[in-house]
Specification:
- The chain is an alpha/beta fold and 556 residues long.
- Among the domains are: 163 residues, 3-Layer(aba) Sandwich (Rossmann fold); 101 residues, GMP Synthetase, Chain A, domain 3, CATH 3.30.300.
- It is built from 18 helices and 25 strands.
- The strands form seven sheets. Strands 4-3-5-6-7 form a five-stranded parallel sheet, with helices on both faces. The protein has a five-stranded mixed sheet with strand order 12-13-14-15-16, sandwiched between helices.
- Helix 2 crosses helix 4, helix 3 packs across helix 4 and helix 9 crosses helix 10.
- The protein starts with 17 loop residues before the first helix and ends with a helix.
- Bound molecules: adenosine monophosphate.
Length: 556
């Protein structure tokens, strides 16, 4: 265990105040472990257990620990040292875990770029995070884009970018100056050197990125301590067992996968099964092939699987617990999933910044369908405040979710402006999400403050109306957004995907359907757009920002 307890020193990182560090340690919330120390513990306990398995390779806990030591030795020899940022742009793969733990051993901070990010995002990270290394997939994986060529062409513009690493079957396919990832993982480990490095668990061990629907992604540094605190509690509430096979269904660098699935699995010493292609068929194949038991899906992915024409041809009976998160899930999707697979359902409200509020697998299905349950840990300080951010609202009323605690981040990286807007002087984070704390103790989500549709002064929380629209038998998926209106300010516009065998649907049909269900007139969509595929963000959420733009076209 590391005993370097020095205050955080990374420029542009907002450290936890010492008083809170002390409090979290005293309460036993923080265990003062680093990511690699956790891995080493698991490797000691169950060296032969498979830690990670992919389509072509698998590693036991002992092998993963060893290869990450080799990589760390090579990184160190390349002058990648504590606090330095390393861009990861990798598919869901065995190599991701080798690299993640390798960086941890030298104190380097993996910056979690996504496979769907492109030149603008990569340049943004290079410009603003002073990253000294970049790691991506070469010819081993199809990433839908040639990142090796992109970065090779622009790297001379970034003198601080010193180390380029590619995952390749054929090392010769990498341009000159690039390191071959596999060769680095076969370096003889310099255990003495690695063991002498003091990596502080109160310093950032990973940099997550905020969703990029509004501008460029923001850096969300998470310390070993606060992130492991969540791995532990996520594993606990989902009931993850060391015999389980967990599989990330969204990009592995996204908090939804890294924290809730991969992290929780490693915490318990379970097996992580990875599949680079996240298409429904590939995920169903993985479940059948590996006996997949535990994953987190974006709601649209669950709809794609439930509606898949070949669903019956796959054996998905190994599923034990599934989580839906990232966006509000339609209640019938929860019920249909539970019916189809007899699973425990965790409906989670999650943010890379920290908040994880979720239903438990053993909760009643009505609670799972209608709420996001309770915070995953006792240490979480969670409150719902009025929109003026002055007072906590009475229980049962809607307001803005505000959080603080041992599992939450302390500020965006190098972003004083966002931090001034989102934190108060006592360290409370204001999330801009509208929730209520119901009388039964569960939290319910009403959407983003910015996505609230204000029609002639009346507030419309789109997700509540979406839930009812989705009950229409011809509608498979729906998003309701604001369209500008000269007189009323905004009016609701519904974008829908129809089911395979749907009959044509008009706005009048929908209005009649909502009228029968007693939906207030002002909440009913005033325009209906049928789309084959609703637009998605880089992690697969419905892209409401894009839909707002579409709604604004020809609005009046
Ligand atoms: P990210 O960290 O990029 O996944 O984005 C977090 C945001 O996703 C939150 O601030 C919410 O707006 C939204 N979100 C996550 N989970 C849910 C959920 N269960 N219901 C509604 N919105 C959600």
């Amino acid at each position: 265990m590391s005993d370097d307890l020095s205050p955080a020193s990374l420029e542009g990182y907002v450290p936890f105040p010492q008083e809170r560090i002390d409090r979290y340690r005293d309460a036993g919330y923080w265990r003062d472990l680093t990511f690699h120390e956790l891995l080493d513990q698991r490797a000691d306990e169950t060296p032969e257990k498979v830690a990670v398995t992919g389509p072509n390779r698998e590693l036991t806990y002992a092998e993963l620990a060893k290869r990450s030591r080799s990589l760390a030795t090579a990184l160190n020899a390349n002058d990648v040292t504590a606090g330095e940022r390393v861009i990861f742009q990798l598919p869901n793969s065995v190599e991701f875990l080798e690299a993640f733990f390798g960086c941890s051993r030298v104190g380097a901070i993996p910056v979690q770029a996504l496979p769907r990010h492109r030149e603008a995002e990569v340049r943004h990270l290079l410009d603003n995070f002073d990253t000294t290394a970049y790691l991506t997939a070469g010819d081993r994986y199809e990433m839908g884009f040639d990142f090796v060529s992109l970065v090779d062409n622009i790297e001379s513009e970034y003198p601080h970018l010193e180390t380029l690493i590619g995952v390749a079957d054929d090392a010769n396919s990498l341009p000159g100056g690039w390191e071959d990832f596999d060769s680095l993982c076969e370096t003889t480990p310099d255990d003495e050197r690695l063991d002498s490095l003091e990596i502080s668990p109160t310093e950032p061990g990973v940099m997550l990125l905020s969703g990029g629907t509004t501008g460029m992604p923001k850096g969300i540094p998470r310390t070993h301590n606060d992130y492991l605190y969540q791995w532990e509690h996520m594993a606990d509430v989902a009931g993850v067992d060391s015999d389980w096979v967990a599989f990330p269904s969204v990009p592995i660098g996204h908090n939804a996968s890294l924290n809730c699935i991969v992290g929780a699995a490693i915490w318990e010493g379970a097996t992580v099964a990875v599949e680079p292609t996240l298409k429904p068929e590939a995920l169903m194949d993985l479940i059948e092939r590996e006996g997949g038991m535990y994953s987190l899906f974006i709601p649209t992915q669950l709809i794609d699987i439930l509606e898949h024409p070949d669903l019956d041809e796959y054996d998905l009976s190994s599923l034990e617990v599934i989580i839906s998160g990232g966006q509000k899930v339609l209640p019938h999707v929860v019920r249909d999933s539970v019916d189809a697979w007899d699973v425990g359902f965790c409906n989670i409200f999650g943010m890379a910044e920290g908040p994880l509020i979720c239903t438990r697998p053993e909760d009643d299905v009505d609670i799972q369908a209608e709420t996001v349950g309770r915070p995953i840990s006792d240490g979480a300080e969670v409150r719902i405040v009025g929109f003026d951010r002055e007072e906590t609202v009475p229980q049962g009323e809607t307001g803005e979710l505000s959080v603080r605690g041992p599992g939450y981040f302390t500020g965006y990286f190098r972003n004083d402006e966002e931090n001034a807007d989102n934190f108060d002087d006592d360290g409370w984070l204001y999330t801009e999400d509208v929730l209520s704390h119901r009388e039964d103790g569960n939290y319910a989500v009403f959407g983003r403050i910015k996505n609230t549709i204000i029609r002639g002064g009346e507030n419309i929380y789109a997700p509540g109306v979406e839930d009812i629209v989705a009950e229409h038998p011809d509608i498979a998926n729906v998003a309701i957004v604001a369209m500008p209106d000269e007189r009323l300010g905004e009016r609701p516009c519904a974008f829908v995907e129809l089911t395979e065998d749907a009959t044509p649907l008009t706005l009048d049909d929908l209005t009649e359907f909502l009228e029968e269900r007693g939906v207030a007139v002002f909440k009913r969509p005033e325009r209906l757009e049928v789309m084959r595929d609703l637009p998605r963000t880089e992690v697969g959420k419905l892209d409401k920002k894009r839909l707002e733009e579409l709604a604004a076209e020809n609005a009046n």
